Amino acid sequence: MHNIDFLMLHYIRRSLEPVLVKAAREFPAVVLTGPRQSGKTTLLREVFATEFRYASLDLPDVQNFAFEDPRGFLHSYPAPLILDEIQYAPDLLPYIRANIDRNRTLAGQYILSGSQNILLSERVTESLAGRAAVLRLLPLSRREIDGSPLLPFAWEGNASESIQPQQNHLELWNGFLRGGYPELASQPERDVQAWHSSYIQTYLERDVRTLRQVGDLTQFQNFLRLLAARNAQLLNLTEISRDLGLAVNSIKAWLSVLEASYQITILRPYFANVGKRLAKTPKVYFSDVGTLCFLTGLKEPEHAFAGPMGSAILETAVLAELMRTITHRGSYPLVYFWRTTAGTEVDFIVDSGTHLVPIEVKLSATPRRAMVSSIKKFQRDLPIRTSKGYLVHPGEARLSLGDEITALPYSQL
To answer: Where are the domains of the chain?
Structure first.
């Protein structure tokens, strides 16, 4: 069977679908951003194939047409129109705005997609303010891969609804090595190493060079690997610049490139006025656990679990699930970590809007009460806003670890 047939038969439903449809019914334009290969084109064509025309600005001839004759281009591709990879023709945006303004009350005129957040956000804010809903599509969450895209978190609604079939140890860690990009999830026969290698190369050659003038791609690749080795740690710019022999400002610029193209998450500390000295330095995580495993040279599930990166890999998978699930609801994820200068730390604090959910991640499949002392301290420090806490682990046991703390398998997060 050809790959395209396989993909058509194995379309994975995305939690963003109802949000996307609602936005297209309410706004003249919708902008969909996200990393390269997160499934934006597939999603748009699946949801809007019968209603919208489609044009990809990734193709040089289409790009040239849009650049040389924007009015003629939009006349040839009338609304309703999906314009893929809009970052390659940002000069179209004022003409799209002019078309929208002829009938501001008409919803669903344009859907624009792109994989570069810096360029898109600046131009969209400039050109389409008040006219466009901006949504983000990240790689697949575990819920989407498991076929339950709208499943609530364990602390939401009916807790029993969040219970999913258990994965055995090997399946879980093989899944981490693959990561959440749709091509790998929908095509289990694909070579994981070859796919990630190709992805990184394409990313370096296209996105990085478009976003910033990164002269030495080999050095940038070294930076990626060095950053991966420090995944889930406090971000020490001075140390990274020293190890690479580069100025701190260069490191900052490269980090902004990675963050803008959705390759990393800069996790910031949670602050509350509780009279404690808290860490101010952010942490850095790769956004996709498969990318992290590839960049750290991990190929076998046993090495991933038992090696020095085991805890960082599980933390990255948990953070990705939180970020993707919340983002695919059309919301902005408010996720932090909490760390006192004395060293007490909670891995993740999720601000649900009504309360704070503390989450600790442990690599041991045998959860014990001693593992949740930091959650208890956080709950004592912020008793009014804090809800039940969770210890997420790679095992199979869901059990109480005392008042207001539950041990939760990763597959039931």
So the answer is: 17-136, 142-412
CATH 3.40.50.300 fits 17-136, yes or no: yes
Q: Packing angle between helix 93-101 and helix 117-127, nearest 10 degrees?
A: 40
Q: Exposed, middle or buried, 192 (CB in 10 Å: 0-12/13-18/19+)?
A: middle
- pLDDT tens for the 413 residues of the chain, in order: 334 433 444 789 999 999 999 999 999 999 999 999 999 999 999 999 899 999 999 899 999 999 999 999 999 999 999 999 998 898 999 999 999 999 999 999 999 998 866 556 677 778 898 899 999 999 999 999 999 999 999 999 765 545 555 678 899 999 999 999 999 999 999 999 999 999 999 887 777 776 666 667 788 899 999 999 999 999 999 999 999 999 999 899 889 889 988 999 999 999 876 556 677 899 999 999 999 999 999 999 999 999 999 999 999 999 999 999 999 999 999 999 999 888 899 999 999 989 999 999 999 989 999 999 999 999 998 888 898 999 999 999 899 998 899 999 999 99
DSSP 207: I
Residues with Cβ within 8 Å of residue 224, at least 6 apart in sequence: 200, 258, 295
Q: What pTM was computed for the model?
A: 0.93
